[in-house]
Structure formats: structure tokens, C-alpha cells
Amino acid sequence: MRQPASFSIPREPLPDHEQKQAALGYLNEAWAEARHEGVDGDCLAQASLFAALAELVSTYGEEAVAKFVEGWPARVRNGEFSLALARQ
After folding, report:
1. How many Å apart are CA 33 and CA 39, to the nearest integer?
2. What is the number of alpha carbons within 13 Å of residue 17 lying toward its C-beta?
3. Contact 48, 27 (CB under 8 A)
4. Are 81 and 75 in contact (CB under 8 A)?
5. Whose CA is closest to 56, among 69, 45, 75?
6. 3-state secondary structure 55-77
7. What's the CA angle centered on 52, arms 48 and 57, to 5 degrees?
8. CB-count burial class (<10 Å; 0-12, 13-18, 19+) for 73
9. Angle of helix 41-60 relative to helix 62-69, nearest 10 degrees?
10. What is the H or E stretch that residue 47 is in?
């Protein structure tokens, strides 16, 4: 007996901003599941940073990633990563 033919329509890649939104959605789901299972938020954050930096290093190399993260202290101090907005 013959198997039915499988047809897949090639999809165009999503624009960069849509890929980032999708990726953040997947990460938020994984984060929520891990928290539900009892994984500490600080452990998740450190593991996430390690995984992200390892991926960037494998893609761009150590020197490029080192240059990229040089600006992080100022960005953190400027509140770019703060979820709660200051109320006046």
C-alpha cells in the first residue's frame, strides 16, 4: 500500500522583529513552566544568560560578543531591562 504524498509549502522566513517576538513568547512559556516546577528565578536568569552568550559566541566569536556586552552596564543603569516603570 502506498503512503500518501506529503506536501509542504515552503514558508518565507518571518521578519526579524516577528522572530524576536515569537522567540520571547517561547522563552516566557519555558520560564513559566520552569518556575511552576520550582526552579529558582535567579538560576533561570543565569542559565538563560549563559545559553544566550554561548549562542552569540558560537555565531559571532568571543571578541564581537565582548564588544557587544561592553555597553551593558550603562544600559542596565538606564533602566532598559527594568520591567517596572518608575511612577512620578
Report:
1. 9
2. 0
3. yes
4. yes
5. 69
6. HHHHHHCHHHHHHHHCCHHHHHH
7. 150
8. exposed
9. 130
10. helix 41-60
pTM of the model as a whole: 0.71
Helix (H) and strand (E) counts for the chain?
A: 4, 0
Half-sphere exposure of 34 (CA within 13 A, CB side): 15
Q: Tens-of-pLDDT digits for all 88 residues of the chain?
A: 556 556 667 678 889 999 999 999 999 999 999 999 999 999 999 999 999 999 999 999 999 999 999 999 999 999 998 987 655 4
Question: Residue 78 carries which side chain, given as an amino acid letter?
Answer: N
Contacts of 79 (CB under 8 A, 6+ apart): 86
